[in-house]
Design a protein that fits this description.
By secondary structure, this protein is an alpha+beta fold. It has one domain: Lipoprotein like domain (Double Stranded RNA Binding Domain), CATH 3.30.160. It is about 30% helix and about 30% strand. The protein is built from two helices and four strands; from the N terminus they run E-H-E-E-E-H. A hairpin with a 7-residue loop joins strand 2 and strand 3. Helix 1 crosses helix 2.
């Protein structure tokens, strides 16, 4: 008899479940200002990224806090019509069950948008910020989720049976 392809049927509690804590350091955009990455926008993007990986839960064991350390915009002038955005975000993860464990990392990301991709300068800046945010979150999850998975395996190996 042929076996069906492997399907991850592990219950949600077997995954590193993460909730979002404090998000700060951002500046909200308004109609009259240059685009920026606001706290709520970063929180929403972080939640979406965690959900996409099956790692988000409102009351998760692990909590991730984010602080936007630097947001810089480049270009957008007559000499350089392409626009770039650089983000540096400090992430801190803590285990809500074990107050002695925490994990920190700075993630830097840069994204450029060419004039040919978006003619209006403010739209190029907005797209550059969105692109830098997406890259930043992808890099965070590439680093964080294996760390949490290894921690979970370590927890299981110390259980008495």
């Amino acid at each position: 008899m042929m076996q069906p392809p492997f399907v991850d049927a592990s219950p949600p509690l077997d995954r590193p479940l993460v909730q979002i804590g404090a998000v700060d350091g951002g500046r909200a955009s308004t109609f009259w200002t240059l685009p920026h990455l606001g706290n709520e926008a970063l929180r929403d993007a972080l939640e979406d990224a965690l959900r996409a990986r099956g790692a988000w839960q409102p009351d998760g064991r692990y909590q991730v806090d984010a602080r936007i350390v630097r947001e810089s915009l480049y270009g957008g002038s007559a000499g350089n019509p392409d626009c770039g955005a650089e983000l540096v975000i400090l992430y801190t993860a803590t285990d809500r069950r074990d107050a002695t464990w925490s994990w920190r990392t700075d993630v830097q990301s840069i994204h450029w948008v060419r004039q040919a991709d978006a003619f209006v300068g403010l739209e190029r800046m907005r797209q550059a910020i969105e692109g830098a945010t997406a890259k930043n979150l992808a890099d965070l999850l590439r680093r964080l989720l294996p760390e949490l998975a290894a921690r979970r395996v370590g927890d299981a190996s110390h259980r008495v049976g």
